[in-house]
Amino acid sequence: MEKITLASQLLQYLITGLTVGSVYAMVAVGFNIIYNVTEIINFAQGEFVMLGGLIMVFMNVAMGLPLILAFPATIVLVTVIGIIIDRFAIRPIRRPSVLTLIIATIAVSILIKGTASFIWGKDPFDLPAFSGRNPITFLGAVVQPQYFWVMGFLIITAVALSIFFDRTILGKAMSACADNPDAASLVGINVKQMILLSFALSAAIGAVAGITITPISLMEYDRGAMLAVKGFAAAILGGLGSFPGAILGGLIMGSIESFGAGLVSSGYKDAFALIVLLVILFFKPSGLMGSIEISKIKRF
Amino acid sequence: MSAGIEENVLELQGVVMTFGGLMALSNLNFKVRRGMIKAIIGPNGAGKTTLFNVITGSFPPTQGTVTFNGRPIQHLKAHKIADRGISRTFQTVELFGNMTVLENVMLGCYTRIRTSFMASGFVLSQARRKEKQIRENALKILKFIGLAHKFKDLADSLPLGEQKLLEIGRALASEPELICLDEPAAGLNETETHVASSLIKAINAKGITVLLVEHDMKVVMNISDEILVLNYGRKIAEGPPEDIRNSPRVIEAYLGAEA
Q1: Which of A172, A190, A294 is opposite residue B107, by nearest beta carbon?
Q2: 3-class DSSP assignment, residue B173
Q3: Under 8 Å between Cβ of B173 and A173
Q4: What pLDDT was estimated at residue B1?
Q5: What does the domain layout of chain B look like in residue ranges?
Q6: Is A162 on the interface with B (CB under 8 A)?
Q7: What is the pTM of this model?
Q8: How is domain A6-297 classified at the CATH fold level?
Q9: For B120, which of A169, A184, A190 is closest by C-beta distance?
């Protein structure tokens, strides 16, 4: 056994924090995608993560599909669920106000949670780690190989999304819907299709987060709400709508939680995220990387 | 569209638009010949913008038909009508304010490239080629409207005159057959108005039919081939500028019965 020093202890907290933070970041990115197209805060975002984890468990463990097949299959399935949500819970609402739609997403999240507890029961499920569970020791800190998968997928999603939104006309068409939906439909953009796409993309990213984190922290039916709150706090911290902000916010949020749990008390783990959320809302509601100007013209 | 070459690009028959009890358009009939500049004038509240909203599908007419290139379009959604080849600008400028000048025009091309919609989004090499093509096309349009030097600026940061030009540029990017301009000269100074009128003529010279709502009579009289006058949602006169200028009914509508 190596001697545990304070430095290695802190490093351990940091690494754990960044891993958990990567998941929050992916949830926050999911919030932002839908928010940027519709100005809706989709409170079912956490359920995508939960579904990603549990469906993966079903595919990989129960059905015995190999990882390489189960992974994409899970993403596709969760994406389809995202599409169904838009098609049957969001689109049919007549003359929607942003607030009505947000409330609809809360209803959807309750419905998904209930259905999940029906299907999977109330016990947490485990998933084999992608490349084993032999920890690597790094400067006295223990690193699970799965940590790299989580952070790696965050990087892949971040790069892919920034290319998509900055470089492709489809990505720009999606942002145009949030900027000015009337003008968007008059230049020939099918706004409803873009909203559908935003739900699909968010669901896919949520699924990735859920699949990668389950081998570390297990997954159960009611995990979604807390993940949504923390991801939302991360999105607010980074500035709602900003992708770099969401990633930074998620990583900071994860670290605060991890250091707080390690140094103060693990019983208050969940409280730290909420404290951060409140502090940000009181003192800098536009977040770290959001612009005040933009937040003024947004309806929400 | 290959619906044969109709002489009239646009034709409205018996168009009625009511909002609750208010009749904004009542039994409106008119035609727009291919290649002309047609202006719609009338006092405030005459129904000019409503008419544009009906033509471009912002809301369907209560009654009547709108025919574009020989096919009815009154039941279509706005983005479908844009697909068919009608584009428009707004009285109150409706740009994508948080995007750059170039991006605004690029999004205008959207209807023309959507055919390979999924491909352009997801196959990288193809996407890059498409993007380049769209970009070059957008830059060409910016040069045409005289905003090429500002391509990196945010649309919101432009002065009103240039925002109006940019909106016209975005409308052009979809390669429309008919472009509907809602008060392109409103709020512009003399020089800007002059720039806007010569731009409208240049657009028309490219073979694009122009439908124009405008209050500035100097602009209307100078550039239109034909004028339609509305008052309280009814057509009260239609004809070449010189006829309209001298029509007693038009003068009455504008100045009141005593005049």
Answers
A1: A172
A2: helix
A3: no
A4: 42
A5: 1-85+176-259, 96-173
A6: no
A7: 0.81
A8: ABC transporter involved in vitamin B12 uptake, BtuC (1.10.3470)
A9: A169
